[in-house]
Design goal:
Structural class: mainly alpha
Number of strands: 0
Helix content: over 70%
Strand content: under 5%
CATH class: Mainly Alpha
Distance between the termini: 86 Å
Number of helices: 16
Number of domains: 1
Radius of gyration: 23 Å
Membrane topology: Multi-pass membrane protein
Largest sheet: none
Order of helices and strands: HHHHHHHHHHHHHHHH
Main location: other
GO cellular component, one term: trans-Golgi network
Family: Belongs to the battenin family.
Shape: globular
Protein name: Battenin
Length: 437
Amino acid sequence: MEQTTSISADRGQQSHGRLTYWRSWSGFWFLGLCNNFAYVVMLSAAHDILKKQESKNATSSIQTTLTMDFQGGNSSNSSRYDCNPVSTAAVLLADILPTLAIKLSAPFVIHKLPYGFRVLFCIIMAAISFLLVSFSSAVWMSILGVVFASISSGLGELSFLALTVFFTRDVLGGWGSGTGAAGVAGASLYSGLTQVGLSPQVTLLIMLVVPVVMSISYFVLLNHPPSFPQWRCREAEYRAVGTDERQQLMNESEDEQEPTAVNKNSGPLTIAEKLHVVKGLLKFVVPLGLVYFAEYFINQGLMELLYFPHFFLSHAEQYRWYQTLYQIGVLVSRSSLCCVKIRKLWLLCVLQMVNAVLLLFAVRYQFLPSAWLVFVIILYEGLLGGAAYVNTFYFISKEMDDRHREFAMAAASVGDSFGIALAGGVAFPVHKYFCGL
């Protein structure tokens, strides 16, 4: 009788453990999806955002200045590349510079703001971004909406990556897969809804469901440890997790890896300790930054110029589906952590740089025969970028000391943002050169 009771209790604990595991994994999957969704949609809508303002009869002084600065006074129709007066890199910079600023500064002070307040702020910023871009009547208003999306995404990414240290390490797989899914969902939904006839304005208003899903994922679905500091800040104890909760997490994990945990000693990291951790992160951050520089130079510097006038898709449609295929590649590779792990991050960096050089020459000399070949290259580009991202954070989580892990996960997120911002800056003169031909 006692043996039967014991077996039933063990089965109940195993069942509860599996439920907790999948709630945590799924929670991070949805958080990754929602956090990157607005960012992806803004990049997918970049061509439409600028076309919308260009097509208006009323030309504000802001648009006139941007047109003269970046196009040298050329009409958008005077170039063989069918260029917008303003490069889509303008949207990219508005989408990444606020994120970069947050990632450079926030890891040193963000521990003073409880996670619950951070997430609420991200939700509000994402909702405002969709509303602003949807109802914009000028370029500056659209760009401001993109900035709000960037703030939400940047703060959310570093917060949720740091949050993973309170759970088993395999939630990183859920986060990575969710961020990849955000690319596919954001780009394909925007492309699909506009393709069937909905206006960009209506499409963006539909996207307001995303901040709602984020709030449900974090506050309802995610299974927070009992001692998790949701609404309070504890300076004296640096995000401590009790031994009992840590052991419970170990029992609940179906993976043989040890779960990540936060060291319970002393207090918050000192500035000197944080700088030492940053130095150790360079071997991860530099390759990640270069991979993202190459791929976003392609996405926002060259992709708009890879236009095939006799293809069955229009220029705007070609651009949207380039973005969609890129995001499909990202989803596949960011979801591959359970199957393959790549420690040689520099190899991914070299391969992505080769992609960028190839497509740069393809734009200049127009030797690619069809958009179909570009579709394949863009898909491959997404595979490399997603693999670099998810493997970087996996090996940081695995190799960093418990005490340093929360800060390291947040600080390393600056790598991709720095590469993207650099790509946006380089894309402007490249766009001007090609559109002047």
